[in-house]
UniProtKB/TrEMBL annotation, chains A, B:
Cofactor note: Binds 1 zinc ion.
GO biological process, one term: riboflavin biosynthetic process
Protein name: Riboflavin biosynthesis protein RibD
Domain (CMP/dCMP-type deaminase) ranges: 1-112
E.C. designation(s): 3.5.4.26, 1.1.1.193
Function noted in UniProt: Converts 2,5-diamino-6-(ribosylamino)-4(3h)-pyrimidinone 5'-phosphate into 5-amino-6-(ribosylamino)-2,4(1h,3h)-pyrimidinedione 5'-phosphate.
Catalyzed reactions: 5-amino-6-(5-phospho-D-ribitylamino)uracil + NADP(+) = 5-amino-6-(5-phospho-D-ribosylamino)uracil + NADPH + H(+); 2,5-diamino-6-hydroxy-4-(5-phosphoribosylamino)-pyrimidine + H2O + H(+) = 5-amino-6-(5-phospho-D-ribosylamino)uracil + NH4(+)
Biological pathway: Cofactor biosynthesis; riboflavin biosynthesis; 5-amino-6-(D-ribitylamino)uracil from GTP: step 3/4; Cofactor biosynthesis; riboflavin biosynthesis; 5-amino-6-(D-ribitylamino)uracil from GTP: step 2/4
Residues that bind NADP(+): 151, 193, 197, 290-296
Species per Swiss-Prot/TrEMBL record: Bordetella genomosp. 5
Length: 375, 375
């Protein structure tokens, strides 16, 4: 399973909106076939591994198949993987986690078992879920998995009092940040950052054939068509002010304006924005914004994970990382769970996840089939 | 050497103002004696190890001695360890680092070599120095090694806007903080903290036979004799305002008032305070203060190391960790090097060291004898 997870990790930048899946077929302690999900429209991991075994003249009958996600049981862009597996007749299929996609949701397990194949689940579950948190979030709750990337000094300052913020963290941290952009389906920022930094918002420092889309939260639709992030690729602009004239001018820059005003019509309804993204097959959102939008997304419960780069430097009185409503008690603070800490060049990267959000994903992959999926 | 370092680490709380030293004697791949420095006045590590070998009926002649610090060559509270080593006649002495004590400073090496004993140095040097940074700092630059303990949210906030700060980090982080208090010779705070929290400032959660001294920076000598930190043990009060009447009242509480005013007579000369501490055999200072004194100590260059506990929580607009002069450029920021990151309960502990200060210590233990120490 460790090898299958590594195969899935190797396609981190290419399978979306499909999940990243790896598959390894083993007989007599020997790998006889392996594969990973191909870009959308291409074969899934199981089919790739079965083809590799066939090409090597190996027979899969009686073998053990390790796969990082429940095999699909429905006709999507490709035929169901369970059909191919049943035809190949392995003795056993070991799966890391269930697929909460309503069109699978335990039916893959059921079809394999009905064919007399032993099914073993939950092996390497946490790692498999980490690789596909976005896919599972979209399938189980209808919104993408969103992380917020922040860079700050050890005392939590993201800019000097005069606005200087480039660069608090070092080259290695910035390159690592681009890995996270590349993995995501969308890179999201706010108008404060566009105005202040005029960012390109693209992926550099990492090779990717499938760059993420870009998006800006721009309540008043005031972004300049000359902003550097308009590079010909489609840019989503979430706004509270439809303003058809300006939207038309932006359309020339390949901007797609989506009006999602809140009840007062003043701000973008951020929760509605996340639902829109889920409906439009965005699995993972990389937020890289200033203290204002960052705080608003946190307050709206739209952030699942924090990705914080800290530089070994103290800045004292300077701009904070997030703007949040004043708290009267520490118990009211938003709590996370540290999931990883890594040195990145001279800096450290801390990941902290909302435990409630993570547990909900875990429950959804463990609960497949329990709400009565039909084989 | 790893075993000798572990022996030294085991006496972390007891040897001060002497260095923590471990010694292991090996013959034919077998440990024939080991020991660590005893509390002041007691035998040093080498003598403990030689005694253990003798007690076990082992002969040290021809053996290899591993010791984490250059053996002393002078009569201090105990006779010179080199004399005992020369008498035991090992073939080889392997040493982690030189002793910059002006009364040793290479003379230990020279005496061993003159007796025909092979001396090998620098094995496990960084770990040995980490164990005795305070001793080496005092010997080489005349001031203690000082670390600043801070606890904050992931976005660098150490209290809410209303002053609430207990407890941002968890029980495990607080217990770990007491380990650092226990290791130090002095726990230092400022009047802001005394007024706000009335701390005990003692060591809890860790057993220690040698609790650190307590000290308060109190420029106006305004501390109340009823403050909870007065528990009968001697408390140092550094002030800029001699005020003999108040000093006498405080003396009843076993407070020792030390007047070290700066040039304007308004604040405590913090650099002079560190020199005073060095002259009075304080090796390590644990600073646990508010943003004001913390910032002033940093600005005065008195801090060698940051010990930062971060909780996986965001607080937004709230009190910062340190008050520092406004910076106009990031290049002007005080930079450190991350040396350790560890999970402590739900929190993380980051250690960051001033690289310039550390390199100066390293140079001093490597340069022993080069300025012409006499055997």
């Amino acid at each position: 399973m460790r090898h299958a997870l590594a195969l899935a990790r190797a396609v981190l930048y290419t399978t979306s909106p499909n999940p990243r899946v790896g598959c390894v077929i083993v007989r007599d302690g020997r790998v006889i076939g392996e594969g990973a999900t191909q870009p959308p429209g291409g074969p899934h991991a199981e089919v790739m591994a079965l083809r590799a075994a066939a090409a090597a003249g190996e027979t899969v009958a009686g073998a053990t198949v390790y796969v990082t996600l429940e095999p699909c049981s429905h006709h999507g862009r490709t035929p169901p993987c369970v059909d191919a597996l049943v035809a190949a007749a392995p003795a056993r299929v070991v799966v890391a986690m269930g697929d909460p996609n309503p069109r699978v949701n335990g039916a893959g397990y059921a079809r394999l078992r009905a064919a007399g194949i032993e099914v073993c689940t939950g092996v390497g579950e946490a790692e498999a879920l980490e690789l596909n948190a976005g896919f599972v979030a979209r399938m189980s709750r209808g919104t993408p998995w969103a992380w917020m990337k922040m860079a700050a000094s050890l005392d939590g300052r993201s800019a000097l009092h005069n606005g200087i913020s480039q660069w608090i963290t070092g080259d290695a941290a910035r390159a690592d940040g681009h890995h996270w952009r590349a993995r995501a389906d969308l890179v999201l920022t706010g108008m404060g950052t566009v105005t202040k930094d005029d960012p390109l918002l693209n992926v550099r420092a990492v090779e990717t054939a499938r760059p993420p889309r870009k998006a800006v939260v721009d309540a008043t639709l005031s972004i300049s068509p000359q902003a550097r992030l308009f590079d010909g690729t489609e840019v989503l602009i979430f706004t509270a002010a439809p303003a058809p004239g300006r939207a038309a001018a932006l359309a020339d820059r390949n901007a797609r304006v989506i009006a999602l005003p809140d009840a007062r019509g003043e701000r973008v309804d951020l929760a509605a924005m996340m639902r829109w993204l889920g409906q439009n097959e965005f699995n993972e959102v990389h937020v890289e914004a200033g203290a204002g939008l960052s705080g608003a997304l946190l307050t709206a419960g739209c952030i699942d994970e924090l990705l914080v780069y800290l530089a070994p430097v103290l800045l004292g009185d300077a701009a904070g990382m997030v703007r949040l409503p004043l708290l009267e008690h520490l118990e009211a603070a938003r709590r996370y769970v540290f999931t990883d800490m890594t040195r990145v060049g001279a800096d450290v990267r801390l990941r902290a996840t909302s435990d409630a959000h993570w547990q909900q994903l875990l429950a959804s992959v463990r609960g497949v089939g329990q709400a009565g999926a039909q084989p």
